Amino acid sequence: MTMIFGVPLAVFMGQLMLGLINGAFYALLSLGLAVIFGLLKIVNFAHGAMYMLGAFAALLGLQTLGLNYWLALLLVPLLVGGLGMLIERYMLRRIAHLDHLYGLLLTFGLALIAEGTLINFFGVSGSSYPTPTALQGGYNLGFMFLPIYRAWVLLAALVVCLGTWFIIERTRLGAYLRAGTENSALMQAFGVNVPQLVTLTYGFGVALAAFAGVLAAPLYPVSPTMGSSLLIVVFAVVVIGGMGSILGAVLTGLGMGLVEGLTKVYYPEAANTVIFLVMVLVLLVRPAGLFGKEA
Amino acid sequence: MNQAAETLTDYPDLEGAEMLRVRNLNAFYGESHILHGVDFDVKRGELVTLLGRNGAGRSTTLKAIMNMVGRRTGSIVINGNETLGMKPHRIPRLGIGYCPEERGIFASLDVEENLLLPPTVRSGGMSIDDIYAMFPHLYERRRSQGTRLSGGEQQMLAMARILRTGARLLLLDEITEGLAPVIVQALGEVLVKLKARGMTIVLVEQNFRFAAPLADRHFVMEHGRIIEEIGAAELASRRDHLNTLLGV
Questions:
Q1: What is the CATH number of the domain that holds A55?
Q2: Has the ipTM of the complex gone over 0.90?
């Protein structure tokens, strides 16, 4: 059997694949955080809760309405994104003139409320969401076994990330967003309805988190705490990548997933902390992050 | 709502009709009271200047018209519409283009994106080809990052992008500041062309020699109010008086 540094190739590739899958979720979530931070300057602590709500909405939709996976993938981000727009419009906007720390605290509070409420009804043990029939099974690639659902997650996450990058970097709406990030007062003086843009942006960032949540439902136990545990890592990813760039958020997310996967192969004990180690190193050497603009 | 705002402004472009009327305008940044009852008006097709020393309230007057300062009281009528209660993003849709003192070129956008950024507010704006004909440098550098342009080119860009929107009233804040004489001269030629196209222009200017031959009327500001109005015809006879006011 082929070995890589003393590890069987199949195990090595399998862990790499798992790392990439985790990285895909890091990428989707840190992308949403970066988009929101860019325009609102708020660190959205509710992001993990929105991811969790996405997974829960898919699960409850299936159990109560028979909503299938594909419809959930389409409808749940719209639903949770709509909730996000309400949160922005009626809560975050009221405190937008205050220090951005208040926005952070508000979203943190919302996350705790969402998590606590769902724990009250569903407990913390988590439920499983069935893998959609069309995506069950896997391929034997010879050097590794590739579950179809994992391949799909990776593909879907990449398409959504690249789509987001395209919208932001290559379209007129994206130009509004970038310009609004730099100087929103001037954008208003050009006749752009910036408050509306802010609402849509927050809704979009939250919808990305919910989309990730639906994607995650068949992979991980759907539990009220699934978001908060993931969010800590995602914040570390954001710090490593820097808030400055969309592509940076995506690449750092995937890259950190891989780093985590490789650590699992060679030194499993450190797998849960390696990202934070990288974060510390990056902060020491390049405080603005790998892709961030130096102040 | 949008529709209503559009039709209200669709007055015929009559030469000499009132484009902008400011009455007893007071403006505040937080606790500080910046404008103390500013009164002036601008007729359609006119080019007027706001002159005065630094801190006299000229830039704040433009910002107050755009609803970019804190609190405002008084009256600002644009094209027959009272705008004091209007949201900031509604005001430019009355056909106003604003060019800020700091130019406001976006670093995350290239030159052409900067140019195409401001939404069209009225029909009849200049086409992108017309704009590139007027500012050939911008065409050559259209793929450069906006803030990589020279100061003069950035100023041209800041002007050019509001010409595309169909704005008929231009509020231009210190457009010659810090620019080389040859560029200042080019800007003067642009203003002459814009005036010939029937644009109404309010020019906040430090460089009086630049403004003098272009303007129909001059308003001199001090301590947040207009203290003197001087028509182009009186300029020669009142030059000394004006120099005293401006402290030059």
A1: 1.10.3470
A2: no
